[in-house]
Amino acid sequence: PAVTAPYELQVKDLVYAYADGHHNVLNRINLKIKPGEKLAILGRSGSGKSTLASLLRGDLAPTAGSVTLNEIKTTEFGDDIAKYIGVIHQTPYLFNTTVVNNVRIGNEAASDEEVWDVLERVGLKKLIKKLPQGLETMVDEAGLRFSGGERHRLALARILLKDAPIIILDEPTVGLDPITERALVKTFMDVLQDKTLIWITHHLQGVEHVDQIVFIEDGQIELQGTPKQL
Ligand code: ATP
Ligand code: MG
User: Per CATH, is 9-225 categorized as 3.40.50.300?
Assistant: First the structure.
């Protein structure tokens, strides 16, 4: 299926249990994520945040209830979901190929100019420009070894090139030092300004930037409100 803007995600009475699990990881979650909204999802380790991210993107199918994008179940989109919802995982995957190919994954038709443009927006242009082989530098053991923060910037560049309207960040700053983390959160917020953002995090650093915060505990939404209210 295909849908058009404005994009709205809706979660209705969502229940999820892993096939081999003995309990519901998520139990009756209800959420409406409006076009352009910035939502932070907080919760302890194991509370079901990453599971919820997979359900939002339709990578997992609900045990009960539904997740819809403009009234269509996200599981029905198949690979096309990437046009609408992009994810940056905790440890972004880099491929054993050139910088330019790493950015272009899933968007092979993009020009070098477009690649430079997104690299500039995520703050990697200077670094890549300095390399003798520039965009053609290999990203591997023998070539360029990105730091944790740079990996996330590259993953962000990849997502910007695809231009999906909804972005899910699954703990994008975990394991980084506080200064790098702050800089990265700022970059995310700046370049994702016009997008719907679902930001999964385990602590409060940076959440003052969002419109809505949801706390998940024991598979349920325990608290919900704006940063000021909470
Ligand atoms: P963290 O903050 O550590 O990333 P989380 O909130 O993202 O945690 P999830 O990864 O969604 O938590 O896991 C929620 C629960 O589901 C945990 O109890 C976990 O052990 C369980 N779980 C996760 N993935 C699977 C799986 N593939 N099969 C069975 N159980 C799983
Ligand atoms: Mg997780």
Answer: yes
Phi, psi of 61 (to 5 degrees): -100, 135
CB atoms within 10 A of CB 12: 15
Q: CA separation (Å) from 88 to 8, 19, 224?
A: 20, 25, 24
The ipTM estimated for the assembled molecules is 0.98
Tokens 């997502």 label which residue?
159
Ligand 2 centroid – CA 170 distance (Å): 7
User: Whose C-alpha lies nearest to ligand 1, atom 20?
Assistant: 46
Residue 51 beta carbon below 6 angstroms from any ligand 1 atom: yes
Q: Indicate which ligand has the atom closest to the C-alpha of 203.
A: 1
The single-letter code of the amino acid at 33 is I
What pLDDT, in 10s, does the model give residues 69-89?
999 999 999 999 999 999 998
Measured CA to CA, the distance from residue 188 to residue 123 in angstroms comes to 11
- How do residues 174-196 score in pLDDT, each as one tens digit? 778 888 888 888 888 999 999 99
Q: What pLDDT does 62 receive? A: 98
Q: What per-residue confidence (pLDDT) applies to 143?
A: 62
CA distance 30 to 12: 5
Between the CA of 43 and the centroid of ligand 2 the distance, in Å, is: 9
Q: Residue 8 has what DSSP assignment?
A: -
Atom nearest to 53 CA in ligand 1: 11
Cα distance between residue 46 and residue 94, in whole Å: 26
